[in-house]
Amino acid sequence: MTKRRYGRKRNARRTNRRAVWGWTVVWLVLVVVAIACSHRMVPTEPQGPGRGGGGLELPLLGERDTVIYNEEGRYTFLYRPADKVSRWVAYKLTSSDVAGEAGRSDAFAVDPRLERYGWVSANHADYRGSGYDRGHLLPSADRTSSEAANRATFLYSNMAPQLPKLNRGAWKVLEERLRGLTAEYDTLYIVVGVVVDGSPERRTIGSGVSVPELFFKAVALRRADSFRGEAYVMPNDTERLAGRLFSDFEVSVDSVERLTGLDLFPNISNF
């Protein structure tokens, strides 16, 4: 009888060990699957704190979206190779970003990051004689904290053809206003981008750089745990800009989402 009891106890211990190992394997498989699925929905560049991963400024990313994080300039962008312009650029803006002494570098350059994906960049020749400015999406003056940060804003991945009337007019005034708001708010989370006619007849310059019909800018302004939003959509059209102030182009964040198909600021609760 004693031997049989001992045998039953030993068999029970073996059964328990098998169960523990079995559940351990199941949990490991679930963790691996969860990690694999999560990587399908995040940007392809290394992500994490300080690298743009999960930032409050980021729009909701689609399963096939390939976004790139520029470390020096601290901004993320979604590039459209067919248009040779970025659909949007997302970044954070604080008082420290605009309080530095770094001057405007004017170091326009092709973005080497695009080559990793076999994408062609716009270049100097595309804009030469086109009648369009090389319009910054992330403004140069929003990155004066260091020379490297400012130089990063002059990559062609951060440019789009913009009429002088817009680039040096209402759009510039809006950029200046937002920099001024860094004195009142802790952080500005900004998404700025373009709306391009997707037809084959769309306007282009140079070697196929699409000219946007519209430029938009959406902002989530944070003070402590409170947020409020602003958004603007401006035409890349001299006649439609004539005699108008930046405030004439203010719209709701929701209207920008409807216009662009983007889900803006999904990581900010109840926004």
Strand content: 15-25%
Number of helices, where a helix is a run of at least 4 consecutive DSSP H or I residues: 7
Number of strands: 11
The end-to-end span amounts to 71 Å
| Strands ordered across the widest β-sheet | 1-2-3-6-9-10-11
Structural class: alpha+beta
Helical content class? 25-40%
Overall spatial form: globular
**Roughly what is the average pLDDT, rounded to an integer?**
86
Please describe the biggest sheet, giving its number of strands, its sense, and whether it closes into a barrel.
7 strands, antiparallel
Give me the secondary-structure topology.
Layout: H1 2-40, E1 67-70, E2 75-80, E3 85-93, H2 95-98, H3 124-127, E4 133-136, H4 147-152, E5 159-162, H5 164-180, E6 187-195, E7 204-205, E8 209-210, E9 214-223, E10 226-235, H6 238-241, E11 250-251, H7 253-260
Question: Can you give me a brief rundown of this structure?
Answer:
This protein is of the alpha+beta class and 271 residues long. Helix content is 30%, strand content 23%. The strands form 3 sheets. Strands 1-2-3-6-9-10-11 form a 7-stranded antiparallel beta sheet.
